[in-house]
Amino acid sequence: MFAVILSLVPNCLAQTKQFHFTPTPEDVVWSRLERFGGKNRDREQTLRTMFTEAGCKPEQLTELPVKHTPAPNVACTIPGEGGRVIVIGAHFDYVDMGKGVVDNWSGASMLPSLLEAVTKEPRRHTYIFIGFTDEEKGLIGSADYVEHLSKEQRARISGMVNLDTVGLGPTEVWLTHASPELSTPLAILAKAMNVPLYQMNVEAVGSSDSESFRERKIPAMTIHSLTQKTLPILHSWKDTIEQISRKDYLESHRLISGYVVYLDDYLDSPSRDSPGTN
């Protein structure tokens, strides 16, 4: 199904508070997308390097080994002032056909830029930015990550936002598998920013790392850009950077940057106002 999801936003929501965020410069975002070379282990190391370049301190950066998998998960944890957690994830592995830029260096390489948006000022939530290994072999990296969380750690996660296959077109949400507490603020912000946002449900064609969290009753959502027309690009020799629309990719980055910052105010808040942006 392909439909605009801005209708999720109640008309009665007034723009009662100003909302500020600073996205990473577009040239930097695109240059990170261009660093897609190498096999999966190389990509994990590149992502780790980009986290460091984006300001992740050594004590915040962690490699998380996954059994029987050469490349570990890699995570940067940005401590917040409260006890709640927001996870932003994307898998960096790819099927060894094409360059694996669409699926899913497009999502993984955006993580350091989102980290930069979050760290501009102190946040209530702790943010965990994580690159998952071996999604293509059955969500192995994300499943292992969730499996090793304690019951208390899982309970502290307010939401998990997954990026998978971004930039083929406008921003989309897998809405039938999205927790409303995550999809609604994205629609609110898209409306405030006048950015197109669509729903495209993909359960008939595959899965993604958000499902590992949903299975443990953790609110989760996948942001993507896939359509029936672009589906044949995945897992094929067509998966190259030339398939990415620079305009759509950078517009998605701008929206998602604002969104991950807005979640800090929106989630676990007694007052969920619609933001004004400037």
How would you sum up this structure in a few lines?
This protein has 278 residues and is an alpha/beta fold. It is 33% helix and 20% strand.
Structure characterization notes:
This protein is an alpha/beta fold and 278 residues long. The protein has a single domain (2-277), classed as Aminopeptidase (3-Layer(aba) Sandwich). The chain is 33% helix and 20% strand. It contains nine helices and eleven strands. The strands form two sheets. It has a nine-stranded mixed sheet, sandwiched between helices. A two-stranded parallel ribbon has the order 2-11. Helix 7 links the parallel strand 8 (171-173) and strand 9. The longest helix has 21 residues, at 246-266. The chain starts with a strand and ends with a strand. Residues 10-16 have low confidence and may be disordered.
List the helices and strands and how they pair.
Layout: E1 2-4, E2 15-19, H1 26-33, H2 40-53, E3 61-64, E4 73-78, E5 85-91, H3 101-108, H4 111-118, E6 126-132, H5 140-147, H6 151-156, E7 157-163, E8 171-173, H7 180-193, E9 197-200, H8 210-214, E10 220-224, H9 246-266, E11 274-277
Parallel strand pairs: 2-11, 5-6, 5-7, 7-10, 8-9
Antiparallel strand pairs: 1-9, 3-4, 4-6, 8-10
Principal-axis shape equals globular
Class in CATH? Alpha Beta
CATH superfamily: Zn peptidases
Number of helices: 9
**Main sheet properties:** 9 strands, mixed
Q: Which stretches of 5+ consecutive residues score pLDDT under 50?
A: 10-16
- Strand order of the main beta sheet, please? 1-9-8-10-7-5-6-4-3
Q: Label the CATH architecture.
A: 3-Layer(aba) Sandwich
Q: Compute the separation of the termini in Å.
A: 33 Å
Structural class: alpha/beta
Approximate strand percentage: 15-25%
Q: How much helix, percentage-wise, in residues?
A: 25-40%
